[in-house]
Automatic annotation (TrEMBL):
The protein's name in its UniProt record: Glucose-6-phosphate 1-dehydrogenase
Reaction(s) this enzyme catalyzes, per UniProt: D-glucose 6-phosphate + NADP(+) = 6-phospho-D-glucono-1,5-lactone + NADPH + H(+)
Domain Glucose-6-phosphate dehydrogenase NAD-binding: 11-186
Keywords on record: Carbohydrate metabolism, Glucose metabolism, NADP, Oxidoreductase
Chain sites annotated for binding substrate: H177, K181, E215, D234, K343
Length: 491
């Protein structure tokens, strides 16, 4: 990132939505407060909302101010002053909004111009076409695509083609905010800036890897979206597979935009396809029923309050998914990668667990294998469990003790949110932490057969009570080989 921030125009299509209000605008405010935005950088929100600049600033003042630290009212006012709003209906016939946007951007063609599409994926293609028709796509433009990028390979190809017809691939930033998390970037540093791990980062020393993203929340009011998404599309295709890539990738030759992504895509292409009857052995899908969560009684997925009644799609959608994946290459032969994610789990936790093999010959009773835990949330940190002797005379008693790196305790100052890092990378023109077209397509290519096999069954997912660690089959998935899931309450 350059020392002096360069002026830019950030056009947030969907700028009044939940993602913008909860993540993007707070992230931009934090960056502004840290002096990372040039004085003349502007944020132009777009929606159908019929707001003018003053309305939008009032909305942000009312909805965002409470969630960020405003220690200096001057900084907050400066931030509000950067904000504009343009009303546009994609697919609508009224050109007024585009004309206003054109007016706002006229004379600023030399600056970085970022179109951030925080809107449903079916608007991506139409937005790009309309921005192009209005003459707004300059050589210095970039477009950021939010997830989900389609709902299968076919739709992802279509979106990529539509966007690719207007923007060159080097201008396209497909966001997966997990890649902006400190622990995730630290995984790369841990692996490639320390010599001691590389010799043991393979099937000779590693027994298996677990990647868990557990959420306590359910889906109240989101049936319309979730019935057609499900845990596999919503979480595994993007976040969990990206984490798997970073664990499994070969050391890149350079820390640049293509080298890391080249290595990640090779991992996706090396995933052993799970097809046909194998789906029963290698995957588990579940749906939560009523139970106890956060000390309260909560309804099951089908009884969540919503504007619409549950349909057949609701009955079949999974709120939990677990997969045993295998990376078919020399380094990882025989090492299972267990992926799981679920809603209404006992607690919120995103972590990568690298389970090492036991010592070849143990002279102490009670020793357990080493384990490296990379925690992404709730509090980011890295922990290596090693065996140590409990102090005392007499018989040697072993105990696993953690060597811990807590970011909050080790590094004073706040840990920036993933969106802060990623937004600054887009403004600086650094796509390293964004997904390339071939990555997204390779991920869908692996996920698609699992989805079609699940859908062809026409059966309901396995029920699990809200507040539990998922369906019984998820425990069998790891238990079959004598392993258990990591995490108190999640095992
Ligand atoms: N919310 C999250 O935490 C989150 C996380 C990751 C990814 N995402 C993804 O980000 C996208 C946005 O999510 P969200 O939760 O912010 O959705 P949302 O709350 O429904 O907001 C959607 C935004 O898009 C605008 N919009 C929709 N259709 C439009 C059209 N035809 N013309 C102009 N504006 C239109 C909406 O404004 P008007 O309705 O006023 O026009 C609103 O500003 C989705 O693809 C979602 O999957 C969201």
């Amino acid at each position: 990132m350059s020392e002096t921030p360069q002026p830019a125009d950030l056009i947030v299509f969907g700028g009044t939505g939940d993602l913008s209000m909860r993540k993007l605008l707070p992230a931009l405010y934090h960056s502004d407060r840290a002096g990372l935005l040039a004085p003349s950088t502007r944020v132009i929100a777009m929606s159908r909302g019929g707001l003018d600049d003053a309305d939008f600033r009032g909305k942000v003042d009312a909805e965002v101010r409470g969630s960020v630290p405003v220690d200096d009212p001057g900084t907050w006012q400066r931030f509000l002053g950067r904000l504009h709003h343009v009303s546009v209906d994609i697919g609508g016939q009224d050109p007024t909004g585009w004309a206003r946007l054109t007016g706002l951007l006229a004379g600023y063609e030399h600056r970085a111009r970022v179109f951030y599409l925080a809107s449903p994926p079916m608007t991506f293609g139409p937005f790009c076409r309309e921005a192009h028709r209005a003459g707004l796509v300059t050589p210095a433009s970039r477009v950021v695509l939010e997830k989900p990028l389609g709902r299968d390979l076919t739709s992802a190809l279509r979106i990529n083609d539509e966007v690719g017809a207007i923007f060159d691939e080097r201008q396209v930033y497909r966001i997966d905010h997990y890649l902006g998390k400190e622990t995730v970037q630290n995984l790369l540093v841990l692996r490639f800036a320390n010599a001691f791990l590389e010799p043991i980062w393979n099937s000779l020393w590693i027994d298996h890897v677990q990647i868990t993203v557990a959420e306590t929340v359910g889906t109240p009011g989101r049936r319309g979206y979730y019935d057609h998404a499900g845990a596999l599309r919503d979480m595994v295709q993007n976040h969990l597979l990206q984490l798997l890539c970073l664990v499994a990738m070969e050391p890149p030759s350079r820390n640049d935009r293509e080298s890391i992504r080249d290595e990640k895509v090779k991992v996706l292409q090396s995933l052993r396809a799970v097809t046909g009857g194998e789906v029963d052995r290698f995957t588990v899908r579940g749906q939560y029923t009523a139970g106890e969560s956060g000390g309260a009684r909560v309804p099951g997925y089908l009884d969540e309050p919503d504007r619409t009644a549950p349909t057949e799609a609701s009955r079949r959608v999974e709120t939990f998914a677990a997969i045993r994946a295998e990376v078919k290459n020399w380094r990882w032969a025989g090492v299972p990668f267990y992926l799981r994610t679920g809603k209404r789990m006992p607690y919120r936790c995103s972590e990568i667990v690298v389970q090492f093999k036991d010592v070849p010959h143990s002279i102490f009773p009670g020793s357990t294998p080493n384990r490296l835990v990379l925690r992404l949330q709730p509090s980011e940190g890295i922990q290596l469990n090693i065996m140590a002797k409990e102090p005392g005379a007499g018989e040697v008693t072993l105990k696993p003790v953690p060597l811990s790196l807590s970011f909050a305790e080790t590094f004073t100052g706040r840990v920036p949110d993933a969106y802060e890092r990623l937004l600054m990378d887009v403004l600086a023109g650094n796509p390293t932490l964004f997904m390339r077209r071939d990555e997204v397509e390779a991920a869908w290519r692996w996920i698609d057969p699992i989805i079609s096999e699940w859908e062809s069954r026409g059966t309901a997912p396995e029920p699990y009570p809200a507040g539990s660690a998922g369906p019984a089959s998820a425990h069998e998935l790891v238990g079959r080989s004598g392993r258990t899931w990591h995490g108190e309450g999640l095992a």
